[in-house]
Amino acid sequence: MSQEGYDKLVAELHQLESVDLPQVREAIAEARDKGDLSENFEYHAAKREQARLLSRIRFKQRVLEFARVIDTSRLDGNNVGLLSKVELTNMTTNSHMAYTIVSPHEANLREGKISIKSPIAQALLKKKAGDIVEVRVPAGLMKLRIESVSL
Question: The whole model's pTM is what?
């Protein structure tokens, strides 16, 4: 995982534990004060929200427990790998794309970050600039040319 992704995960966990969870506990206390819990919708909604938050907190704690931050100075910048920035050309449509290959927990297509477990990243691994790769995706077969690889 990248240092940026690790820091983002730590910040998100801190937000959940120190801000969101106390707000939900406060909402539960307010709903409990309103009386009969068997027909109290606010109480049940707040309890569901608390369960959802606790689940997310446990998941993020587990991810952080097993996460390793990768030292980018030790990576090979010539071949496609984890944390590589890859510029591609779709040979069929002649469209250009740029992706950074990241861990599954950091993947975000809007930011141009794809999971190393995705079909495109799997096909690109250990390839170099100039290589042509065929990728089987849900929409069919894509033929991609790697324009450049950098860290």
Answer: 0.70
State pLDDT tens for residues 126-150.
888 888 999 988 888 889 999 988 8
d(CA 138, CA 121): 14
Beta bridge partners of 113: 100, 108
Tokens of 61: 């704690």
Closest CA to 20 of 55, 65, 63: 55
Question: Exposed/middle/buried for 124, CB within 10 Å: 0-12, 13-18, 19+?
Answer: buried
Question: What are the backbone angles phi and psi of residue 82, rounded to the nearest 5°?
Answer: -60, 135
**pLDDT tens figures, 114-123:** 999 999 899 9
